[in-house]
């Protein structure tokens, strides 16, 4: 399966709706009335190496504020996050699974998180899967967002967000809880082996800066949340971000850091900004 995915990555990398998308995580936004350039950078939320490349540091020096997906230094962030983790309409892990699968998940969570499934019974299954991310890599978990925040604070610049916690977590109300639970059960059955394989491939693809391959990888993922709900996870959010990015960039030269999966593809932020009339070019 891994060889098939890699072959597909190559195919997808050669052509994306006629758009020239070079291998780069950093893109310069200019033209269409902008007085000064802004920058778009593809981040990764889970990594072993959060060191920013010199080109990203230079772009941060040339801009005056940092916009991430969320306002990560908002003091109410954690409280808002907790409020959006619960399932709606009385759904529970128990109601979404057979007794056999619930027992399997319960044993797995107690072993890996130290919590019983009953304690987490009302939490969205995807949120529980996210708690397992540190177990999927063989290192201390870091994030590129964390490095950007640290640098922004050194520069005494403001950190803001393109969407609210409520908007981001609502995505996981739009994806059926049953699908989320099925993926959690699959993770428990494989004892994280499959998740570790996909995570390793994602990290390698990110390091290559091949943003087109990242889109292809998500499309071909065996995780149905990733492969079958691209419109909810990426496309809808990308389209909402474009008018915000336009307004923000016209007012202040800004460094935009969003998940690298949002950059590539025909509905990615790069192509959408180009369609809106901006010059968006890779920075090497």
From TrEMBL:
Signal peptide: none annotated. Its cofactor is Mn(2+); Co(2+). GO terms for molecular function: metal ion binding; metalloendopeptidase activity. The keyword Endoplasmic reticulum does not apply. It is found in: Membrane. One of its GO terms (biological process) is proteolysis. It is a single-pass type I membrane protein. It comes from Flavobacterium lacus. GO terms for cellular component: membrane. This is TraB family protein. Keywords: Glycoprotein, Hydrolase, Membrane, Metal-binding, Metalloprotease, Protease, Signal, Transmembrane, Transmembrane helix. It holds the Pfam family TraB_PrgY_gumN. It comes from the Bacteria.
């Amino acid at each position: 399966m891994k060889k098939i995915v890699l072959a597909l990555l190559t195919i997808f990398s050669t052509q994306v709706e006629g758009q020239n998308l070079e291998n780069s995580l950093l893109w310069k936004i200019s033209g269409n009335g902008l007085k000064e350039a802004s920058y778009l950078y593809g981040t990764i939320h889970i990594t072993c190496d959060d060191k920013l490349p010199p080109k990203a540091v230079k772009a941060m020096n040339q801009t005056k504020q940092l916009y991430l997906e969320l306002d990560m230094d908002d003091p109410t962030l954690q409280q808002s996050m907790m409020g959006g983790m619960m399932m709606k309409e009385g759904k529970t892990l128990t109601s979404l699974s057979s007794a056999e699968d619930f027992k399997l998940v319960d044993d797995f969570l107690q072993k890996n998180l130290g919590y019983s499934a009953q304690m987490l019974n009302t939490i969205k299954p995807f949120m529980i899967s996210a708690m397992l991310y540190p177990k999927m890599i063989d290192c201390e978990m870091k994030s590129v967002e964390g490095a950007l925040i640290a640098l922004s604070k050194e520069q005494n610049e403001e950190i803001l967000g393109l969407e609210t916690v409520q908007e981001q977590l609502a995505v996981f109300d739009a994806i059926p809880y049953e699908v989320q639970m099925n993926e959690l059960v699959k993770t428990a059955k494989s004892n994280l082996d499959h998740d570790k394989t996909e995570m390793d491939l994602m990290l390698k693809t990110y390091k290559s800066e091949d943003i087109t391959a990242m889109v292809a990888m998500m499309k071909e993922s065996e995780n149905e949340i990733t492969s079958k709900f691209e419109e909810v996870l990426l496309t809808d959010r990308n389209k909402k971000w474009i008018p915000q990015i336009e307004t923000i960039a016209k007012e202040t030269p800004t460094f935009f850091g969003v998940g690298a999966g949002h950059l590539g593809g025909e509905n990615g932020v790069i192509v959408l900004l180009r369609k809106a009339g901006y010059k968006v070019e890779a920075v090497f």
